[in-house]
Amino acid sequence: MNNFIFQNTTKLIFGKGSIASLTTEVPLDSKVLLTFGGGSVQKNGVYNQVIEALKDHHTIEFWGIEPNPTIETLRAAIALAKQESCDFVLAVGGGSVVDGSKLIAAGALFDGDAWDLVRKPSLYKSALPMAAVITLPATGSEMNRGAVISNKATKEKFSFFSNYPVFSVLDPETTFSLPPYQVACGLADTFVHVIEQYLTTTGQSPLMDRWAEGILQTIIEVAPKIKENQHDYESMATFMLSATMGLNGFIALGVSQDWATHMIGHELTALNGITHGHSLTIVLPGTMWILRGEKGDKILQYGKRVWGIEHSDREVAIRMIIDRTEEFFRSLGLKTRLHENGVGQETIDEIKKRFTERNLHLGENRSVDAHVAGEILDAVK
Hints:
Helix content: 40-55%
Number of helices: 15
Order of helices and strands: EHEHHEHEHHEEEEHHHHHHHHH
Number of strands: 8
Structural class: alpha/beta
CATH class of the largest domain: Mainly Alpha
Largest sheet: 6 strands, parallel
CATH topology of the largest domain: Dehydroquinate synthase-like, alpha domain
Radius of gyration: 20 Å
Shape: globular
Strand content: 5-15%
CATH superfamily of the largest domain: Dehydroquinate synthase-like - alpha domain
Strand order of the largest sheet: 1-8-5-4-2-3
């Protein structure tokens, strides 16, 4: 196990009726910028709960943070935060709203263009305190420092790191009215977050392996229950907490990580508009197959422990495990091949070009360069 220092300062407030806790959790003397997405929170009652809880607070509202939040939209929110001298940001929505709000909180204290904060991490110094009310489990952004920001003009998508949310409120009942496609993408996103921290090499940490495998098995177990009844509180609660635990740093303690699948997936989203969680289900089978030489032992461990798959022929076993993983994604209702999602050779060529221009070498062994990224995408055409 590698050396590590770990600290996660986010307070989780979980369960039915927990949105009411905003009354005491948000400082009464704060000027709060409330950030929202496209308006679904007005239909499912979340907006009214938030406003009721903050009725004695000074609040300013910003609407319209889109899926894969764009710098163009976030610039407007930052300008509003500065104009109104806001000193606290509360994100209400899914991971995209939370991600965008992290940049808003940082941009409110930054004199330059917020896109520079994304592209030049050394410029980041501080941010306004920020918290979240989660309505879509997926990204784990409610309990980590990360965000992913898009640039509509340049069709680019990059990671950004800020402070941890001060607290996050997770009420599983807020998920009951989500579109099934969003739920499917959230389940897939959670699954692949865990895979990125797990599917590297064996023997690094038995504890982290078992923890990661437990989350994977839980998602596999709960997914059909959710598909059958999205109003099943216990199943949605399990999903919601799994998404948080999958990317709050806990299962990454002392082990190597990959993230090549995510970085390639980000390009599919930026270039073709494929929902983030969906993009991962397309790329992961290709990553596993092309990198089976370096990941083979861990793939076999994953297949045996998570899927119960064993075979005397190593290559056959790996193929069976990858196929079973892809079958799981398809059981969620997601199309797992590029051609099924309208993605052609021109996109593969553009991604290879971008990898070359940025001199990218991704994965735990830094072996995923432009050529390997192309092979991964060719494997899932």
